[in-house]
Amino acid sequence: SIGPAREDAYASHPVVTCSAHVATPVVQAAESLVSQIVFTREVGHYWTGEQRIGKSFAIDLIAGTLASKFRDVLVQTWGAKDHDSKTEGNFYCDILLDMGHGAVRGTMSDKRTDVIKTIIGRCRSANCKYFVLMADEAQNWGQFELRMLKGIVNDILRLGEITVVTIFFAHPVVETERTKMIRNNRTDLIDRFLACRHDFGGIANSEE
């Protein structure tokens, strides 16, 4: 009915307030493929797309769906940061902050240990045997960061018997970093994190 109640309902509707996240066909397709990757525990998959086409929203939606689909999987989203000075300490601090860790103190080795223990502890608390890392802005991670990430992934498996699956979303400039790694014979990092590229498009037509 027409009146104040209707106006209030309209004004607070998620679509009007822009708080509703609606999965477009592109996001649905990505979610379906990511679910398959998580189910089969594949490695090396990443998505590329231009700026401001909804990659971050897609990550949030996909992460939520994965959490409801797979009860033995812990899903977390990290934002890959770009620093003028690339240091191991900055890398581990960024991860700890993304995981909601409290005060980040200690040596670089202490921070690395905190990352590994925090992930293993949270997986065990949730009775999860698998950890899915969804990285946003992954073009900010080059050979330096991926070398450290590989070490973390290996130690989580060795110490916690937890398998890590990584899903990267990045700007196409990530291909520049990938080419550098090929030149440097770091195919181990490519095979682990950047082996299978998928395109992430924006809204293509009015129906979407």
Low-pLDDT ranges = 13-20
Number of helical segments with 4 or more residues: 9
Task: Describe the strand arrangement of the main beta sheet, using strand numbers.
Answer: 2-3-4-1-5
Overall SS class: alpha/beta
| Number of β-strand runs | 5
Task: Output mean pLDDT.
Answer: 88
The helical percent reads 40-55%
- Note the beta-strand portion: 5-15%
* SSE run: HHHEHEHHEHEHHE
Globular, elongated, flat, extended or rod-shaped: what is the shape?
globular
Whole-number radius of gyration? 19 Å
| Intertermini distance | 30 Å
Largest sheet: 5 strands, parallel
Essential attributes:
208 residues, alpha/beta, 9 helices, globular
Structural notes for this entry:
The chain is α/β, with parallel strands linked by helices and 208 residues long. The protein is 51% helix and 14% strand. The chain is built from nine helices and five strands, in the order αααβαβααβαβααβ. It has helices at residues 4-11, 14-17, 25-40, 55-69, 88-98, 108-125, 143-160, 174-183, 187-193; strands spanning 45-48, 73-79, 130-136, 163-170, 196-199. Strands 2-3-4-1-5 form a five-stranded parallel β-sheet, with helices on both faces. Strand 3, helix 7 (143-160) and strand 4 (163-170) form a beta-alpha-beta unit. Helix 3 crosses helix 4 and helix 5 (88-98) runs parallel beside helix 6. The longest helix has 18 residues, at 108-125. The protein starts with a helix and ends in a 9-residue tail after the last strand. Mean pLDDT is 88; it is low at 13-20.
